[in-house]
Amino acid sequence: MNDATLSHRTAAPNLWRINLVGLSTIVRKESRRVVRIWIQTIVPPAITMTLYFIIFGSLVGGRIGTMDGVPYMTFIAPGLIMMSVITNSFANVVSSFFSSKLMLHLEEMLVAPLAHTTIVVGYVVGGVVRGLLVAALVVVVAMFFADLHVVHPLITFTTILLTAIVFSIAGLFNAIFAKSFDDISIIPTFVLTPLTYLGGVFFSIKLLPPFWQKVALANPILYMVNAFRYGMLGSSDIPLGLAYAIMLGSAAVLFAAVLLLLHYGRGVRE
Amino acid sequence: MDALVIKDLRKVYRNGVEALKGIDLTVREGDFFALLGPNGAGKTTTIGIITSLTRKTSGSVQVFGHDLETERDVAKSCIGVVPQEINLNMFERNDLTLINQAGYYGVPANVARERTEKYLKALHLWEKRLGIARTLSGGMKRRLMIARALVHEPRLLILDEPTAGVDIEIRRSMWEFMREINAAGVTIILTTHYLDEAESLCRNIAIIDEGRIIENDTMKNVIGKLQVEAFVLSLREPVSAAPALAGYPTRLRSEHEIEVEVTKGQGLNDVFAQLSTQSLHVVSMRTKTNRLEELFIRLVQDKDKEERPSA
Question: Domain span at residue B33?
Answer without folding.
Answer: 2-224
